[in-house]
Amino acid sequence: MSNTIHVFLSAILVICLDVSLGLSSEEFKSSLLNARKYCNESQVDPATLAKIKQTDYIKDRDIITPQVTCFLDCILKKSGLVENDKLDEAGISQVISQLGDNEEHGKVGVEALKKCIANKQMMSGKCNAGEYFKVCEHEYAQDLSFLSLILKL
Questions:
Q1: What is the pLDDT of residues 38-86, one digit of tens each?
Q2: Which of 8, 36, 97, 141 has a CA-to-CA distance to 147 between 20 and 30 Å?
Q3: How many CA atoms lie within 13 A of 12 on its CB side?
Q4: Is the pTM value of this prediction over 0.70?
Q5: CA-CA distance, 46 to 48, in Å (whole number)?
């Protein structure tokens, strides 16, 4: 997995983690599976989206949108953490273990993601894997470079 992909995946994962509440790997993997479920459907399941937004360990509920989770699905696929439509649980656990509780991680990740969302057309329920990732990776490389230094990748 390239450093840029790893760094950006880490940034997005931090957005979903509330370290102070001690989110377990199992709970986090469950939230990823829920996100992937409605990314792979032609329409977003409003009940699933509402459930994720109401979950206590989501730091910024407004940022957990169908578009964001679809983007996360793209990142997971591009980084090799999804194979044959199955989540690589060991790989996810490894990424989680590399994340610290440094607030700077989350700050950079949130900023990069907000910029990506603000500058892209709203996506449908299905994920347009190539372009969305490419735009965010290219336009916000400086945010990612800064995060890379923090994570010492």
A1: 444 434 455 655 555 555 444 444 555 555 555 565 656 666 666 766 6
A2: 36
A3: 29
A4: no
A5: 5
